[in-house]
């Protein structure tokens, strides 16, 4: 540490005023960093147009002076990175990490002369920065009272937002309004259509040991970070050295351009251990039957998780070509009002009618992976007491996938009510993830912390929920929702949307969809674990020909090519399978129908068999949901496909290399 201080101060004279521009590798994005009157600012430009005007940086500390004023620059370091790395599971096999970096080493000129570093990275598609605070003789720990990071965007831009600090966490419908109306905090990714024409998204990467960032407008008309507080109002208690998560401004020339932004993954570290055991999965579940009221989570005459049902579903997985089966309601703790049973849930004891030994051995005999389930109802105290034993229990039965859930408005941690997204919530999710990796368990986290790219470092974090998914259907979701997600929530990583409902006309959970659209989701909504969420009999009875697409579609992709998209209107994407030469295309539209001429120039050379699943001309998400046309024809990369997406509908195409 002494060497570090010596090096830091080995330059001639600290600078009181300073300004420097750092460009992206392609020169189009420019970051301007400034030290003015002892305060530090940044601004972001693209093609000479300002996207973020001079914005303040700093931290308010509890019981200490803010790290904000009286700053001088003692050193600066530049660096360029150009690296291409391979994902284990993802939307693209290869990802390029290319940026120019500047690190500004700052010191207070008076008082305690505390030090911190602002590290900035400028990518071709955005800017990221974080605060890094080294331990110092009289500065070993701190309590963040407020992070003062501003994002001074044009407030006339239109933001797509969901509210923060609400009981259903991230599960809200997106609204579009001018930035100047964002007086109440909203979650990130916060996607903004700027008056300059670019579409940007504010988010964070590598969220560890800190409250999650929400943003709101301050009195100076700037969006400012609002870190989710702990129950005592503090934002984070940290020991030094400490780095905040990266603050990220993703920039797209268009909304569609934003959808393949990989900054969030790039700002995370490569894995430190061997994760070669991680495998993506398609799975069914003893699950939707509970949602439609056919079965129950709790024991009783209609209990879902019985040994019998599990065996039947395992047989169905085999018939339907699905690799995994989730079983919910298998353990002690569901009886009565399960939302109130969190403090007593038991994760190592099955209920009487469920013989884990028999089910696990039947699954393995049939080559089906069981997906375990832990519903914590947010009672982290109860869960953490059992966590290791709970994973060990599954590992003993050779179960390598778990879906944990944190339903409820709060987490209970050390007897206190805390936000899921507070520092202690973040610490819990991390502890669970790391412990899962020790038992070679992959996770599909429901009611999760939002994605900040940790799956690069922890590839066993295969997917998460973290937005309204299909379980909200039955009136709570409009068709536009799935045309907004790719430009907002999905910028933070994959989502378990629980796709593939064929019983779309069900009286209890009627779904605003056509059947073709259910197929499209497997392509439009990336997830390292994809659920075929309906009951097997609906796949076999409603439309087995349409089901073929769910059987064929892969989970892991080699390459993703966005085709067409307008936020809230429609979204079309093509993805190449990681294990074959085949391509898949999915499209979804809002309440309006949309006709597209799909240009196939993304294909390789040669002939492909296009297996097309599209809405019939008279299909509709309300009246005629099951009307689908399925056809097959030979195509090449010079061809087009004319496709109709009915109101609330969509299409799916498999392009099989001949
Ligand atoms: C909410 C989850 O999102 C859902 O998938 C699960 O079935 C219930 N909690 C019960 O655990």
Largest β-sheet summary: 10 strands, antiparallel
CATH class of the domain at 2-266: Mainly Beta
Q: Tally the helices.
A: 12
Q: Catalogue the ligands.
A: 1-deoxynojirimycin
Cα gyration radius (Å):
25 Å
* Strand segment tally: 38
- Give the end-to-end Cα distance, rounded to a whole number of Å: 62 Å
CATH architect. name of the domain at 2-266:
Distorted Sandwich
Shape: globular
Low-confidence residue ranges? none
Named CATH topology of the domain at 2-266: Beta-galactosidase, Chain A, domain 5
Overall mean pLDDT stands at: 97
Helix content range: 10-25%
Strand content: 35-45%
Broad structural category: alpha+beta
Give the secondary structure arrangement, pairings included.
Elements: H1 2-8, E1 18-23, E2 29-36, E3 39-46, E4 49-56, E5 59-61, E6 71-86, E7 94-108, E8 115-123, E9 126-133, E10 141-147, E11 150-151, E12 158-161, E13 175-178, E14 186-187, E15 190-193, E16 199-205, E17 213-217, E18 223-227, E19 236-239, E20 242-243, E21 246-252, H2 255-258, H3 263-266, E22 281-286, H4 288-291, H5 307-320, E23 324-327, H6 356-365, E24 369-375, H7 380-396, E25 401-405, E26 411-413, E27 416-418, H8 423-438, E28 442-445, E29 461-464, H9 481-484, H10 515-524, E30 529-531, H11 536-541, H12 544-552, E31 557-566, E32 570-577, E33 583-589, E34 594-599, E35 608-615, E36 628-635, E37 640-645, E38 650-657
Parallel strand pairs: 22-23, 22-30, 23-24, 24-25, 25-28, 28-29
Antiparallel strand pairs: 1-2, 2-3, 3-4, 5-10, 6-7, 7-8, 8-9, 9-20, 9-21, 10-19, 11-18, 12-13, 12-15, 14-17, 15-16, 16-21, 17-18, 26-27, 31-32, 32-33, 33-38, 34-37, 35-36, 35-38
Helix pairs in contact: 5-6, 7-8, 10-12
Bound molecules: 1-deoxynojirimycin (NOJ).
């Amino acid at each position: 540490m002494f060497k570090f201080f010596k090096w830091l101060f080995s330059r001639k004279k600290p600078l009181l005023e300073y300004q420097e521009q750092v460009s992206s590798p392609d020169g189009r994005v420019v970051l301007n960093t400034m030290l003015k009157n002892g305060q530090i600012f940044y601004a972001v430009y693209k093609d000479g147009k300002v996207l973020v005007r001079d914005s303040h940086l700093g931290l308010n500390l509890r019981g200490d002076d803010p790290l904000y004023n009286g700053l001088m620059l003692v050193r600066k370091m530049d660096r360029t990175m150009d690296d291409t790395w391979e994902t284990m599971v993802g939307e693209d096999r290869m990802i390029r990490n290319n940026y120019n970096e500047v690190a500004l080493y700052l010191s207070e000129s008076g008082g305690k002369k505390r030090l911190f570093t602002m590290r900035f990275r400028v990518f071709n598609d955005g800017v990221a920065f974080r605060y890094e605070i080294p331990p110092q003789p009289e500065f070993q720990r701190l309590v963040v009272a407020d992070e003062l990071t501003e994002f001074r965007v044009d407030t006339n831009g239109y933001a797509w937002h969901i509210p923060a600090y609400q009981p259903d966490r991230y599960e809200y419908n997106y609204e579009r309004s001018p930035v100047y109306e964002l007086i109440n905090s909203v979650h990130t990714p916060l996607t903004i259509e700027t008056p300059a024409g670019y579409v940007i998204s504010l988010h964070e990467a590598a969220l560890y040991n800190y409250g999650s960032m929400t943003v709101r407008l301050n009195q100076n008309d700037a969006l400012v970070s609002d870190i989710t507080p702990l129950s005592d109002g503090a934002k984070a208690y940290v020991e030094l050295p400490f780095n905040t998560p990266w603050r990220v401004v993703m920039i797209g020339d268009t909304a569609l351009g934003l959808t393949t932004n990989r900054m969030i993954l790039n700002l995370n570290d490569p894995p430190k251990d061997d994760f070669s055991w991680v495998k993506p999965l398609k799975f069914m579940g003893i699950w939707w039957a509970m949602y439609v009221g056919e079965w129950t989570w709790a024991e009783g005459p209609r209990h879902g998780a019985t040994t019998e049902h599990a065996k039947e579903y395992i047989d169905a997985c085999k018939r339907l070509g699905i690799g995994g089966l989730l079983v919910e309601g298998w353990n002690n703790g569901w009886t009565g009002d399960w939302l109130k049973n969190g403090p007593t849930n038991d994760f190592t004891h099955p209920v009487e009618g469920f013989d884990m030994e028999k089910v696990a051995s039947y699954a393995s005999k049939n080559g089906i992976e069981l997906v375990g389930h832990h519903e914590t109802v947010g009672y982290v105290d109860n869960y953490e007491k059992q966590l290791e034993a709970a994973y060990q229990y599954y590992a003993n039965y050779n179960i390598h996938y778990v879906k944990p859930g944190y339903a409820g408005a709060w987490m209970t941690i050390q007897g206190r009510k805390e936000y899921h997204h507070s520092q202690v919530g973040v610490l819990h999710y991390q502890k669970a993830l790391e412990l899962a990796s020790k038992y070679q368990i992959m996770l599909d986290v429901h009611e999760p912390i939002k994605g900040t790219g940790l799956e690069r470092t922890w590839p066993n974090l295969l997917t998460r929920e973290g937005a309204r998914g299909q379980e909200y259907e039955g009136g709570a979701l409009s068709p536009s929702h799935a045309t907004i997600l790719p430009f907002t929530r999905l910028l933070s990583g994959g989502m378990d949307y629980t796709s593939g409902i064929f019983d779309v006309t069900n009286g209890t959970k009627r779904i605003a969809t056509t059947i073709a659209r259910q197929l499209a989701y497997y392509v439009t909504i990336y997830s390292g674990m994809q659920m075929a969420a309906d009951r097997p009999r609906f796949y076999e009875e409603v439309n087995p020909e349409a089901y073929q697409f769910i059987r064929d579609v892969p989970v892991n992709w080699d390459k993703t090519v966005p085709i067409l998209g307008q936020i809230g209107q429609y979204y079309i994407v093509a993805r190449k399978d990681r294990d074959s030469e085949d391509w898949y295309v999915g499209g979804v539209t809002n309440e309006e129908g949309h006709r597209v001429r799909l240009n196939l120039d993304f294909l390789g050379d040669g002939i492909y068999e296009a297996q097309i699943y599209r809405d019939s001309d008279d299909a509709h998400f309300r009246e005629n949901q099951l009307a689908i046309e399925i056809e097959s024809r030979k195509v090449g990369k010079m061809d087009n496909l004319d496709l109709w997406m009915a109101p609330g509908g969509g299409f799916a195409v498999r392009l099989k290399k001949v």
